[in-house]
């Protein structure tokens, strides 16, 4: 039986609790980039108006459209200003210097990986350097995030500020860390105590409380509530049924 | 519910657009300077945010019927226009394919949102049916969802009856849960074995020793609830949309934090639940 909160691979719960990297790429598709069309085209009216496309002059379009145009050889993609080697070096220095995350677009990992795989020839001379810098930045940020989660686990019930974290970096947070922190909260006994307090507020003082094991559970998993031992005055009631 | 036909569900819910699209400024940071961008996102970004919120939240959130209705109506009308346009010629085919891709993207978002909600309904069907009134009034459950819940339970009960024809005992808590386990498990043999094991375990350890008052799954006698509620103590990642002020996150440790617009936190869902339901904090 899977432990509380941790989804079994392939189970229904695992598909619900997080977004897959492909879905994140879909969400990143709406970020704007600049393209240089190779042919002219009239305006396109999507949710906003893009164009008119004049061969040779820069136009701002959503990323999904840019990738599509690039794949059909109708345009080349300009390197976003934050993704140049100089800018990435500044970001890496800032990441190493400070404890908080540096300023990067929310979908920076998806955008950069898409652009480097599809349009590497458009990104300029320093493509390899960019790849190395991006990897370094990713590692530094990941280290900060792991440390933050570790500190939170010590407190067993706290809030961790994660301003400017990236979308892809949140994937392990949503699955693994969330489950781990929930378990820590459970084990610490705070969950059981809070539940008892809630039930005592809601019903009469002689409530059975949250100490009774829950049968069945959300997501098709059996959740054994082993967190808190039943308070003394309720143990006597349980004994009657043995 | 792999037999669930998304298209059928969508067709059932097409209704004429009523409320206007709410325009919202985009929350996320922009990368390249918006050279020729006009007032964008509106309903589509809201739809995506709604989908992401539903995935992250442990319980059913408010149903965004104004967005979904608008999107569904647009999907069908624009698709019809596109189908006509495509047959005009090869140049138009190219343009039409670009528009078609955007339409596919919107359709994907809508499908994902509805699918996530359906999944949550299936998962918490007993809880939802016991609290129907409260969920309907707070807007978290649309009428269609409530009907769907009823159908799921009826189907589950029918399936149990056909499988256990010889047993004449009334439905007890353990047996209902066995239905539930077997219903969502995809392989019948695994479900049956698991069901029998769990049933036997619950029967011998708990149910046989409880008085009849506790036998019904809906029983709340003495405050004990057998239906499990969605776990609101999971940790979620949230972004503060509007200033919320000071929120107490732990009664025991007396810790409070101030939530200002633009901050992102990893924290327990329960303290911020009300803010998520009314939209001043969104889950990412």
Structural class label of chain A = mainly alpha
Gyration radius over CA of chain A: 25 Å
Low-pLDDT stretches of chain B: 1-40, 165-174, 179-191
Q: Main sheet of chain B, how many strands, which sense, barrel?
A: 3 strands, antiparallel
Mean pLDDT of chain B: 67
CATH fold type of the largest domain in chain A: Methane Monooxygenase Hydroxylase, Chain G, domain 1
Q: Termini of chain A, distance in Å?
A: 26 Å
Number of alpha- plus pi-helical segments of chain A: 9
Helix content of chain B: 40-55%
Q: What is the CATH topology assignment of the largest domain in chain B?
A: Methane Monooxygenase Hydroxylase, Chain G, domain 1
Number of helices of chain B: 10
- Low-pLDDT stretches of chain A are 1-15, 206-242
Number of domains as seen in the coordinates of chain B: 2
Can you tell me the CATH architecture of the largest domain in chain B? Answer: Up-down Bundle
Approximately what portion of the residues of chain A adopt beta-strand conformation? 5-15%
Number of strands of chain B: 5
Structure description:
- The complex is a heterodimer of chains A (242) and B (284).
- Chain A is mainly alpha-helical and 242 residues long.
- Chain A folds into three domains: 1-26 and 79-190, Methane Monooxygenase Hydroxylase, Chain G, domain 1 (Up-down Bundle), CATH 1.20.58; 31-78, Ribosomal Protein L9, domain 1 (3-Layer(aba) Sandwich); 191-240, no CATH class.
- Chain A is 47% helix and 8% strand.
- Chain A has helices spanning 12-16, 21-28, 63-71, 85-97, 108-118, 127-155, 170-187, 190-202, 232-239; strands spanning 32-37, 44-45, 49-50, 59-62, 75-77, 160-161.
- A three-stranded antiparallel sheet of chain A has the order 4-1-5. In chain A, strands 2-3 form a two-stranded antiparallel sheet.
- In chain A, α3 packs parallel to α5 and α4 (85-97) runs parallel beside α6.
- Chain A starts with 11 loop residues before the first helix and ends with a helix.
- Chain B is mainly alpha-helical and 284 residues long.
- Chain B has ten helices and five strands.
- Chain B has helices at 6-12, 43-56, 65-86, 90-123, 125-130, 132-137, 143-163, 173-184, 188-205, 273-278, and strands spanning 235-240, 245-250, 255-259, 264-268, 281-283.
- A three-stranded antiparallel sheet of chain B has the order 4-1-5. Chain B has a two-stranded antiparallel sheet with strand order 2-3.
- In chain B, a hairpin with a 4-residue loop joins β2 and β3 (255-259).
- In chain B, α2 crosses α3 (65-86), α7 packs across α8 (173-184) and α8 (173-184) runs antiparallel to α9 (188-205).
- Chain B is flat, with a radius of gyration of 23 Å.
- Residues 1-40, 165-174 and 179-191 of chain B have low confidence and may be disordered.
- Classes of the chains: A mainly alpha (242), B mainly alpha (284).
- Chains A and B meet through α1, α2, β1, β3 and α3 of A and α2, α4, α8, β1 and β4 of B.
């Amino acid at each position: 039986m899977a432990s509380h909160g941790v989804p079994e691979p392939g189970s229904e719960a695992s598909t619900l609790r997080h977004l897959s990297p492909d879905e994140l790429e879909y969400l990143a598709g709406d970020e704007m980039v600049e393209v240089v069309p190779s042919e002219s085209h009239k305006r396109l009216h999507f949710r906003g108006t893009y164009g008119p496309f004049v061969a040779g002059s820069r136009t701002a379009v959503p990323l999904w459209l840019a990738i599509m145009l690039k794949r059909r050889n109708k345009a080349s993609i300009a390197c976003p200003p934050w993704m140049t080697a100089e800018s990435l070096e500044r970001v890496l220095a800032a990441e190493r210097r400070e404890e908080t995350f540096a300023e990067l677009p929310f979908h920076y990992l998806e955008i950069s990986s898409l652009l480097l795989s599809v349009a590497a020839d458009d990104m300029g001379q320093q493509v390899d350097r960019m790849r190395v810098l991006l990897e370094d930045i990713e590692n530094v940020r990941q280290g900060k995030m792991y440390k933050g989660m570790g500190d939170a686990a010590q407190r067993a019930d706290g809030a961790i500020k994660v301003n400017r974290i990236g979308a892809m970096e949140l994937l392990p947070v949503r699955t693994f860390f969330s489950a781990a922190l929930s378990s820590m909260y459970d084990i610490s006994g705070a969950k059981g105590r809070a539940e008892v307090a809630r039930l005592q507020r809601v019903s009469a003082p002689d409530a059975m409380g949250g100490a009774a094991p829950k049968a069945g559970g959300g997501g098709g998993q059996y959740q054994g509530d082993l967190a808190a031992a039943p308070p003394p005055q309720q143990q006597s009631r349980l004994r009657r049924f043995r | 519910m792999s037999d669930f036909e998304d298209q059928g569900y969508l067709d059932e819910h097409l209704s004429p657009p009523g409320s206007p699209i709410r325009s919202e400024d985009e929350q996320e940071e922009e990368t390249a300077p918006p050279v020729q961008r006009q007032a964008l996102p509106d309903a589509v970004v809201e739809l995506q945010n709604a989908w992401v919120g539903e995935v992250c939240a442990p319980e059913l959130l408010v149903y965004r019927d104004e967005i979904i209705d608008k999107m569904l109506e647009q999907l069908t009308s624009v698709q019809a226009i596109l189908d006509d346009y495509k047959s005009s010629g090869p140049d138009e085919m190219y343009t039409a394919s670009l528009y078609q891709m955007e339409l596919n993207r919107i359709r994907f978002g809508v499908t994902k949102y509805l699918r996530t909600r359906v999944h949550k309904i299936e998962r918490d069907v007993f809880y939802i049916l016991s609290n129907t009134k409260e969920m309907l009034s707070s807007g978290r459950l649309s009428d269609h969802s409530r009907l769907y819940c009823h159908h799921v339970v009826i189907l589950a009960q029918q399936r149990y009856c056909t499988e256990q024809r010889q047993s004449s005992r009334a439905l007890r808590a353990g047996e209902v849960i066995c239905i539930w386990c077997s219903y969502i498990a995809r392989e019948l043999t695994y479900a049956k074995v698991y069901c029998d094991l769990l049933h036997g375990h619950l029967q011998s350890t708990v149910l046989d020793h409880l008085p009849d008052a506790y036998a019904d799954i809906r029983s709340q006698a003495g405050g004990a609830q057998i239906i499990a509620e969605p776990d609101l103590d999971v940790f979620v990642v949230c972004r503060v949309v509007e200033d919320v002020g000071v929120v107490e996150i732990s009664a025991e440790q007396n810790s409070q934090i101030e939530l200002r617009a633009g901050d992102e936190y990893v924290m327990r869902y329960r303290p911020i639940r009300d803010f998520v339901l009314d939209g001043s904090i969104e889950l990412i």
